[in-house]
Amino acid sequence: MHINMLLQQEVEMPLAVPIKDMRDTARFSELVEKAAGPVTVTKNGYSKFVVMRAADYDAMAEENALARLMTRMETAERERAEHAGRDAFEALADIRARHGL
Q1: pLDDT confidence of residue 87
Q2: Is 45 in the same domain as 62?
């Protein structure tokens, strides 16, 4: 079985396994836990989906959120420096007037 060979190796490179290897859920779970990164599951030779440890996913989601926040902060700083921003109270007053609030 393909998954047994992968489990015996020190897994450092990206992994791709056929979808049939997921039948043995205990072995597949062990493979994902030992993998250095995500495991790509293939069907008929094409990537179908990616499986990763929950902790790795959480860390990736946190990094993405931080990157989005930093991008927004950079935009706000640039707009402030260019005097392109608006006063929050003025913006809220415009919204209230526009929508009859």
Answers
A1: 81
A2: no
CA dist list (Å): 15 to 45, 81, 89: 13, 47, 53
Question: What is the CB neighbour count within 10 angstroms for residue 41?
Answer: 20
- Residues 23-40 as b or e (16 or more Cβ within 10 Å = b): eeeebbeebbeebeebbe
Q: List, for the chain, all residue ranges whose pLDDT scores fall below the cut of 70.
A: 1-12
14 within 8 A of 41, measured Cβ to Cβ: no
Closest CA to 15 of 70, 30, 79: 30
Q: Both 42 and 59 in a single domain?
A: no
Amino acid at residue number 10? E
- Collect all residues with Cβ–Cβ distance below 8 Å to 85 and sequence separation of at least 6: 76, 79
What length does the chain have? 101
Q: What is the pTM of this model?
A: 0.66
